[in-house]
Amino acid sequence: MNSPRLTPATLTRNPNSLVLLVQLDRRTAVVNWINQHFGDLVDVGVWGGPNAILEVTSKGVHKAKGVAYLADYFQIPRRNVIAFGDEHNDFEMLRYAGLGVAMANGTTAIKAAADDVTPYDNDQNGVARYLSDYFEIAE
Fold first, then answer.
1. pTM to 2 decimals?
2. What is the rounded distance in angstroms from the CA atom of residue 39 to the CA atom of residue 23?
């Protein structure tokens, strides 16, 4: 099944972001083209893994802004925020959090940005297991 081409006729609402699957050998060219034509308006993130998946978002919009907004609203000090991530779109959030934790299946860049790395991945209940250990919750 082919996805519809992105045109003014098929884009009927203002999107929060676009996720694009591109040919692997064209990934760099597509990223460069987007940055050249729209770089002042959008950010382009490249997902890890074997597929060439691009995430296009409004400039400066990332998960850390949402987490910071909620922390401020609920008056939670930044040092008390724990965030978990595994992909490029988690980078700013992990850096913002008082404790940024990368999943075992996280990209190399995410693991480097994190304060800690859980030995478990997403399919092994990594967040729950990490929090159980961190807060010494008895099973």
1. 0.79
2. 21
